[in-house]
Write a structure and sequence with these properties.
single chain, alpha/beta, TIM Barrel, 8-stranded parallel barrel, 9 strands, 43% helix, binds flavin mononucleotide
């Protein structure tokens, strides 16, 4: 890439066509990220779920460390970790940014897509896409404190897409290093299919890298997405939950066979279970957690052996889960 290329101006530690594992509340906690990073090494980065910056009281540093993962902090896992925060007008942002500075977080991402009613009522998450004055103030505060990579993850608007281009411009003008776009409005929640045209349009009009997100499920989708949108990189959420080894398939040019899926699933559940064993002594919590990451991963197996997912979800303990996986 030549030095005059617009991407050269940004502080993004990503080669073009990188694959990012998206932030998912209730999924991408530290044990989960560690499992993915241990087993499926081709993801270029993986994001924490959001940490809400409070408006009253100061988080102790250990809360940040817990969010990152105390055993991940200061290790090479951090080299590929995106730390996501969620802020609102009333958040004690400056104070918490100072704490983050002490932790030397490399890549900070601002959540501007969360559709939750409570979050939006408190003027955070996707609400900020409807109030560019507050958004500008928040972006300025973060940018002036956080000198390394700072990105924003947006939807295409709050109620509708009428401010989409203004939002992109504002974020770029405030010195953000890249924008991830989940190509739906907040009002759409998860309805329909994300419209890749928004990402294509953003790539055309922005001078900073655009990371596309929304309804990328297979390696073929990844190729089509890059061809169609020309996005710098892609971020994948539900597709990554369905196929946590998707980046390996893509980079190794491999096919996602059922045999490979079963083999990976056994390793995946056992790694996650073992990692949780170190912290959660209660088997019930561990079992619940394994079920919580099983939303899409069984889909291809259901086609050849219907009822497998139901059997897995009915398991009371880990031995029973292993039996189900071994019986496929
Ligand atoms: C269970 C779940 C939790 C999510 N939590 C977050 C989150 O903490 N932060 C965030 O920016 N987006 C979150 N998202 C949104 C995803 O990162 C992503 O933008 C969205 O699912 C669209 O991408 P996909 O079609 O690849 O799933 C979450 C999505 C899901 C399914």
């Amino acid at each position: 890439m030549d030095a005059s290329h617009p991407y050269m101006k940004t502080n993004l530690p990503l080669k073009e066509k990188s694959l990012l594992f998206a932030p998912m509340e209730g999924v991408t906690d530290s044990y989960y990220r560690k499992t993915v990073q241990d087993l499926f090494k081709k993801w270029d980065f993986i994001a924490t779920d959001f940490l809400r910056i409070p408006s009253v009281g100061l988080f102790p540093q250990k809360q940040f460390l817990h969010h990152i993962g105390t055993d991940i902090y200061n290790t090479s896992y951090m080299d590929k970790t995106i730390f996501q925060i969620l802020a609102s007008e009333r958040s004690l942002l400056e104070e918490h940014l100072l704490l983050l500075k002490q932790l030397e977080i490399n890549w900070l991402d601002l959540n501007l897509g969360c559709p939750s009613k409570t979050v939006c009522k408190n003027k955070g998450g996707s609400y900020l896409l409807s109030d560019l004055k507050i958004l500008k103030k928040i972006l300025k505060t973060i940018r002036s404190s956080h000198k390394s990579t700072f990105t924003a993850k947006i939807r295409v608007g709050f109620e509708d897409d009428s401010m989409f281009e203004d939002i992109l411009k504002l974020i770029e003008d405030e010195g953000v290093d890249a924008i991830t776009i989940h190509a739906r409005t907040r009002a759409q929640l998860y309805k329909g299919i994300a419209n890749w045209d928004y990402v294509k349009q953003a790539v055309k009009i922005s001078n900073i890298p655009i990371i596309g997100n929304g309804d990328i499920w297979t390696t073929k989708d990844i190729d089509n997405y890059f061809d169609y949108t020309q996005a710098h990189s892609v971020m994948i959420a539900r597709g990554a939950l369905k196929t946590p080894w998707l980046a390996d398939l893509y980079y190794n040019n491999e096919e996602d066979t059922i045999e490979l899926r079963i083999d990976h699933m056994k390793k995946y559940y056992s790694s996650l279970y073992e990692k949780m064993q170190l912290i959660h002594k209660d088997e019930k919590i561990r079992i619940k957690r394994l079920k919580a990451v099983s939303r899409y991963i069984f889909d291809p197996i259901e086609q050849i052996k219907p009822g497998t997912k139901r059997s897995f979800l009915l398991c009371q303990n880990y031995e029973q889960m292993q039996d189900v996986l071994n019986s496929i």
